[in-house]
Structure formats: structure tokens, C-alpha cells
Amino acid sequence: MTQQISVAPTVGEELPPFVRETGFAAWNRYAAVNDEFVPIHMDDEAGRAAGYPTAFGMGNLQWSYLHVLVREWVAGRGRIARLSCQFRNPNLKGQTVTARGVVSAVNEDDGVISAELKIWTETQDGTVLAPGTATVVFE
Hints:
Blueprint: E1 18-21, H1 24-34, H2 39-42, H3 44-49, H4 59-74, E2 78-85, E3 96-109, E4 112-122, E5 128-138
Antiparallel strand pairs: 1-3, 2-5, 3-4, 4-5
């Protein structure tokens, strides 16, 4: 039985970007939900003591931006089977962070279509913060 999806993904297809302004307000909301009030994420002096120019955002907040990016692209057509990323650069206060993605492969196995995605977050100047990959299965 072949699965039918409303719009099959194509290699090279770009996911609509997900954009967030970052800083204490966003980090505070995330910390409140996750009980993650760590000084390096809340206090510029603690961030500087750790070797950064300011406090910096939580790595898992970058992961959540990538998850939202993929979830909104899937939009009920399927499910996220796997999502991973690496934290390569800090998300500093005042940056605009954009989550982006592109379809790198489309597969069909026993009538089930899946897509491999290259995903990443980047700053307004194009610095990649968290590169990753995801697999989406269309059901």
C-alpha cells in the first residue's frame, strides 16, 4: 500500500525559516519552563567569566528552534523520526537567530516516504550556531 501525501518533498526544497530575536526575555521564559536558571545564561558578568562577551542562550533552546522549524514544515503530513544538532557557537544576547533547513534526500521504502533534512540555526550575519540533521516520515 503506497502512502499518499499532499505535497511530496523534493531534494533541494527549502523549509520556511523560523526566526527569533534572542536575549534575556526569551532565555528567561525558556529557563522558567525548564528550571534552567544558570548564571551564564542570565548574567553578563558570569558569561564574561566563562569567556564570552555576554551571557549566552541555552543550547537546547537552539534545538527547540530546529524542532519548531521541522514541525511547522511537516504540518501534520507526517512525523519527526529523528532530529539532532551540535552546538558550535554561542547564541549571544541581541542576536537574531534563524533556523533553516533543506531537503537533502527523499526515500521510499515499502510505500513509506521519508525525507532527510540538513538543518541549522544561524545569526543575522550568517554564523552557524547549531548544524544538524533530521528525518521526517510521511504518514
